Amino acid sequence: QLKKRGVIFQSLERAMVEHTELFRKHFMSQPATLGSARFAALHKALVSSGTFLYVPRGVEIELPIEIFHWLNGENASVFPHLLLVTDELAKVTVIEHFRSLDSHREKEQPAGFACGVNDLIAGPGAKVSYVCAQTWGDNVVALQMNTTTVDHDASAMSLNLHLGSRYSRFESLSRLVGEGGRSDLLAVSVAKDQQEFDARTLQDHISPHTASDLLYKNALDDRARSTFGGLIRVEPNAHFTDAYQKVRNLLLSDDSEANSMPGLEILADNVRCTHGATSGQIDEDELFYLRTRGIPVPVAQRLIVTGFLDEVIQRLNHPAIGEHLHRSIEDKFAS
Hints:
Blueprint: E1 8-11, H1 12-18, H2 20-26, H3 37-46, E2 51-55, E3 65-71, E4 76-78, E5 81-86, E6 91-100, E7 112-122, E8 127-135, E9 140-150, E10 155-162, E11 167-176, E12 182-191, E13 196-205, E14 211-220, E15 225-234, E16 242-251, E17 257-266, E18 272-281, H4 284-291, H5 297-314, H6 319-334
Parallel strand pairs: 2-5, 3-6, 4-7, 5-7, 6-8, 7-9, 8-10, 9-11, 10-12, 11-13, 12-14, 13-15, 14-16, 15-17, 16-18
Antiparallel strand pairs: 1-2
Helix pairs in contact: 4-5, 5-6
């Protein structure tokens, strides 16, 4: 039925041939500006598989579209790609899963490398919701580069769940190119042992009367580390911009470490831009409250952490997807 309405959902290889003009117009059309230009070039040179999704004017896809990327084998590499283009007044929700094959069954996790790109283009008045669920194996080095372009009166929401890999770097560039555009950037990370998560973001307000809201939450245990470097940039003449950036880190051990560097670059007048970053440990009063009701310490800590992260997942406003993300977080604590 969707195909009859003009929706295109196919492999990247077919899209290159069957929809050449549309593919060339949008495929990696934005430069990598957040530090991983070399890896973007590596991806462009080696990408051989991926997904192309086009939603024509006025088409609303009610059910989420799921895409799976798998990493399998010792020292394997994968270069996943998603090109999502929505036309005027279109609506779609996409979930991308990034997984290692049998990652929880093997005692010794095989080493691997992932270098992915996803380009999201929200046309005029379109509504795009994107979810990234990253559960690579424990010995994988992963990089993911995202570019979101939001046209006038459109909205794009991205939620990134980072649970797997040994080292994971995620870059998110959100460009608001049309008046009335809105971008929501959400992320949840749960790290333990010696995992390291590195996030770099840019909220680039190019047109006036645009809005963006970033909320990143990290829960870190053992010797895990997180790094966040984010910038809100308001270009000249992008007046009446409304931008917000908040990063919160929950440290579950004395050896975990969180580094947050939010920033502002404002080149226009009549704007409202705020940012903030906090780091702290579990509130002892909350923990005591749960323990007095007979809840063991590990379970009590898990409840507190889940509640801390739930604020981000609730913003998605999709119960079925939210339940799946909660289960993934529970599996992380149980592993």
